[in-house]
């Protein structure tokens, strides 16, 4: 049963389907861990720890979950392994509710009083950054918002061309200067265009190279500084896109980018093609940055706003 009524039936079905590989892998491992055991004891907890870590939940978050279950075992004296699914579900839901991030809701809303709302998108090549920008543009456009895109990943011709294709597909303008041009000049022109046409939102792509941390920081700082000549408090959001199928590598990328710039929101993509969806639980818990969007399929509507409770519900749904 869904935990919040505002979640549409279609969206819930898409989420359930997108997490199938993760769920099947997790419950297969969990089944092997408790086979022949009737009571949740130290041995079962050791096995469970291994299951969570191998499901890419992350060591730090796994330790928190195990500690919570240990406290319940101590309090309740006896917990059967047949209750483990329910207990895990409750404790993971509670853990995610305890952290300081909040769900963004079931819509692609934009904050009031910020027009145009400026989103700078960062992330390494291959994580689905440009596709995420295209799908975001489509979702905003579908809701009647005027959108401008800035092709600021000027080191890859493919990134510029792909964003232009998305612009044509969605029906929104794309500001581009071609390849090997100054990304900050693209960002400046995109923000200025958005102001001139009184657009609601402007989304700026950036280079996806983790060359060196200093170069990355300097480049992103320059883009911000140039945008601020047009809108003093831009960007309003720095969205880091991570590929969920890379598991622990997504944690490493999140660590590097949060050191290099002030990331304010996360998008985790490609969850439908992997058994590593547990990474969403760990990243949501550890980085204290809202996971704002998740990608659970190829279709435009398969980019969803992230709801922690619905995610846990789908993760444990049988």
TrEMBL record:
Membrane topology: Peripheral membrane protein
Residues that coordinate or bind GTP: 123-130, 205-209, 269-272
Domain SRP54-type proteins GTP-binding: 290-303
Organism: Fibrisoma limi BUZ 3
Enzyme Commission (EC) number: 3.6.5.4
Compartments, as annotated in UniProt: Cell membrane; Cytoplasm
Protein name per the record: Signal recognition particle receptor FtsY
Keyword DNA repair: no
């Amino acid at each position: 049963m869904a935990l919040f009524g505002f979640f549409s039936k279609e969206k819930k079905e898409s989420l359930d389907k997108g997490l199938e590989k993760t769920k099947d892998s997790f419950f297969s491992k969990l089944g092997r861990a408790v086979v022949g055991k009737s009571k949740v004891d130290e041995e079962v907890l050791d096995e469970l720890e291994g299951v969570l870590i191998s499901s890419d939940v992350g060591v730090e978050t796994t330790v928190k979950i195990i500690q919570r279950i240990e406290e319940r075992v101590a309090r309740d004296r006896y917990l059967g392994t047949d209750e483990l699914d329910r207990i895990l579900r409750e404790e993971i839901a509670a853990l995610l509710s305890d952290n300081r991030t909040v769900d963004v809701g079931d819509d692609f809303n934009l904050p009031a009083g910020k027009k145009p709302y400026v989103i700078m998108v960062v992330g390494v090549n291959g994580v689905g950054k440009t596709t995420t920008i295209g799908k975001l543009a489509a979702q905003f456009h579908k809701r009647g918002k005027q959108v401008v895109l800035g092709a600021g990943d000027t080191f890859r011709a493919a990134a510029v061309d792909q964003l232009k294709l998305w612009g044509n597909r969605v029906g929104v303008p794309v500001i581009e200067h071609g390849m090997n041009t100054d990304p900050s000049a693209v960002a400046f022109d995109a923000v200025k265009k958005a102001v001139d046409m009184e657009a609601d939102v402007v989304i700026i792509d950036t280079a996806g190279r983790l060359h060196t941390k200093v170069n990355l920081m300097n480049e992103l700082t320059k883009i911000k500084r140039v945008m601020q000549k047009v809108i003093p408090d831009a960007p309003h959001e720095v969205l880091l896109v991570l590929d969920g199928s890379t598991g622990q590598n997504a944690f490493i990328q999140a660590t590097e980018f949060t050191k290099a710039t002030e990331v304010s929101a996360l998008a985790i993509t490609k969850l439908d093609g992997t058994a590593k969806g547990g990474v969403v639980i760990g990243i949501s818990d550890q980085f204290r940055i809202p996971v704002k969007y998740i990608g659970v399929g190829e279709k435009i509507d398969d980019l969803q706003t992230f709801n922690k409770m619905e995610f846990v519900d789908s993760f444990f749904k049988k």
